Amino acid sequence: MSQVEVISATCHIDFGLSSSPVQDSLSISYQEKLSWTTDLVSGLLSTSPTVGRGAHYEPRDNAVDSLHHLDEDRPIFPGLPPLLRGHPSTHMRNGIMRAYRLAAANEPDAEKAFFVADLSVVYGQHERWKRYLPQVEPFYAVKCNPDPYVLRLLAALGTGFDCASNGEINQVLKLGIDPGRIIFANPCKAVSFVRNAAKAGVDMMTFDNADELHKVARAHPGAKLVVRILTDDSKSLCRLGLKFGAPLASVPGLLAKARELNLDVVGVSFHVGSGCYDSKAFADAVARARAAFDMGKEAGYEFGLLDVGGGFEDGNFEETAGVLGGALDRYFPDRQGLRIIAEPGRFYVSRAFSLAANIIARRAGDGGNPEDEIDPDQPTVMYYINDGVYGAFNCILFDHQHVHPYVVSLGGSFHVPDAALQRTESCSVWGPTCDSIDCVCPLAHLPSALQVGDWLGFDHMGAYTICAASQFNGFEVSNVVYTCGGGVGAAEVRAVLAGFAREGHGAE
Ligand SMILES: *Cc1c(COP(=O)(O)O)cnc(C)c1O
C-alpha cells in the first residue's frame, strides 16, 4: 500500500512514502535551511496523515484539510509542550524525520530517543473503567506516570489521585483540584509529610501499623484513616505484600489502638500487587476486606470506604472487573453509605506511550569459527540503542517487564518491504551506557538488513518508565511528544483539556 501525501499546496514538497521518506526528509532539511522555519515544518508535519506502524499504512485524514484547523493547535497550557493531533505512529515518523534533519544540520544529540504519548488512549481507558466498573471511583496512582498531560486529563475527567509523597500531593494540588480528591495511600509516611497533608487538607490516608497511628495522632488528628490489609499478591508482577499490609489477625489490635488514640478510621484498603494477572486475587481480597469491615464494627467504627487498590491490567481488565464486581455484590450487597474507590495506575497509561529509539551502534561477530554450529537462539548481532535500563527501560529491572522491539525504519527508509521484515536473525538489544546490566532484550529476532541509524519502536511504555528514568552516564531522559490521537476520543481529549484550562486549572 503505497501512498503519496501532498503538502505541496503550501510548500512544494512531496512526502513520497512509496520511495524513501527518510531520504526525502534529508532533502527537506536542505530546503528548510534555505527558506523555511522549523516551526512551519513541524506544524505541517504534525497535521500529516495517519500512518500505521512499520510497513502497514493505515487510512488517513486529509493533510490540506487539516491545515484549516491549525488554530486549534494553539497551546492549551502555556509552558507544556504542544498537544498535536493525529495518529501516534505519524508522530513517531515525524519525530524521526526531524531527527534526520537535525542530524543533517549537525545538531548534537540529533537522534535522541523519544516517546509519543497518545492521550486518547488514556481517555479511552477512563471510558472503559466507567463502563465496566461504574460503582468504583478511580483514584489514579500518580507514581505510575506523573506526566503533566496525563494528570491534567484525568483531573479534568474527574478522577481522584493516589499520592504517596509530599511531592506528589503538591504536584496534584497545583493543578487546582480539591484536596478531598486525594488519598495519601502510603502506609508508612514521614511525619513532616503527614503534617503537610494536614495543612493542605488531605485527610484520607492509609496505615498498616501502630507506629503510624501514633504519628498521625500527633501530626494529623483529624485524618480519615484507611487500614491497608494484606492480601494474596502471589499472582502479580510486582508483589507489594512484602512491604505493606496488615495481616487480618492484627487488624483488631490496630483498630483498638486507633480508638484509644481517638482517631477516625473510615475504611479498608488493599492492593493485590501491581500487574495482577489472576483476576481471582480481587475476589479473595474483597472477602478479606469484608472480614476487616466486620472487625471495624466490633471496634465501634462504622466504615464507609472500601479501597480496592491498583493492579488492574489492560489485557484482562473486563475479566477483572467482572470478578471484582461479582465479589462486591457478594460481600457488600448493601452499598448504603459505602463509597468504593480504586487506585489504578498501569491500566490508565501503559498503552498510551510508545518509545522510538535509534540504533546508535551495531556489533556483529566476524563469523567466528566456521566449524561452530549456528545456534538460532544464540544472538549473532548486538544492537545498541539510545535508551536503556537506566532510562525508560528501567521497567525491565524494577517492573519485571519484557519489551518487544519492532522496526520503524529499515535501511534508512520507512518503507519496509515484507520480504526484508521476514529475513531476520537472532540478536540482542542493549542500552547506551557502559554497564553490562544495560540489556534491553537478551534475545530478539530482527531483520538482518537493520543498520546503524535505523529506528526501533516499543509499545506499551507508559507505566513505570519515564518516572523512574535516570541520567546515568550522561544520557538524558527521553522527551515526550504529545498527541490527542487520530481517531476516537481525539476531539474529546482536546475539548476536556481546553475546558479544564478555561476554568483556570493546570497552569504551570
Ligand atoms: C503502585 C500502587 C498503585 C498502582 O498500582 P498499579 O498496579 O499500577 O495499578 C496503587 N496503589 C498503591 C498503594 C500503590 O503502591
Automatic annotation (TrEMBL):
<feature type="modified residue" description="N6-(pyridoxal phosphate)lysine">
    <location>
        <position position="143"/>
    </location>
</feature>
<dbReference type="GO" id="GO:0004586">
    <property type="term" value="F:ornithine decarboxylase activity"/>
</dbReference>
<dbReference type="InterPro" id="IPR000183">
    <property type="entry name" value="Orn/DAP/Arg_de-COase"/>
</dbReference>
<comment type="pathway">
    <text>Amine and polyamine biosynthesis; putrescine biosynthesis via L-ornithine pathway; putrescine from L-ornithine: step 1/1.</text>
</comment>
<feature type="active site" description="Proton donor">
    <location>
        <position position="434"/>
    </location>
</feature>
<dbReference type="GO" id="GO:0033387">
    <property type="term" value="P:putrescine biosynthetic process from arginine, via ornithine"/>
</dbReference>
<dbReference type="GO" id="GO:0005737">
    <property type="term" value="C:cytoplasm"/>
</dbReference>
<keyword id="KW-0456">Lyase</keyword>
<comment type="subunit">
    <text>Homodimer. Only the dimer is catalytically active, as the active sites are constructed of residues from both monomers.</text>
</comment>
<dbReference type="Pfam" id="PF02784">
    <property type="entry name" value="Orn_Arg_deC_N"/>
</dbReference>
<dbReference type="InterPro" id="IPR002433">
    <property type="entry name" value="Orn_de-COase"/>
</dbReference>
<dbReference type="InterPro" id="IPR022644">
    <property type="entry name" value="De-COase2_N"/>
</dbReference>
<keyword id="KW-0663">Pyridoxal phosphate</keyword>
<dbReference type="InterPro" id="IPR022653">
    <property type="entry name" value="De-COase2_pyr-phos_BS"/>
</dbReference>
<comment type="similarity">
    <text>Belongs to the Orn/Lys/Arg decarboxylase class-II family.</text>
</comment>
<feature type="domain" description="Orn/DAP/Arg decarboxylase 2 N-terminal">
    <location>
        <begin position="122"/>
        <end position="350"/>
    </location>
</feature>
<dbReference type="InterPro" id="IPR029066">
    <property type="entry name" value="PLP-binding_barrel"/>
</dbReference>
<dbReference type="InterPro" id="IPR009006">
    <property type="entry name" value="Ala_racemase/Decarboxylase_C"/>
</dbReference>
<protein>
    <recommendedName>
        <fullName>ornithine decarboxylase</fullName>
        <ecNumber>4.1.1.17</ecNumber>
    </recommendedName>
</protein>
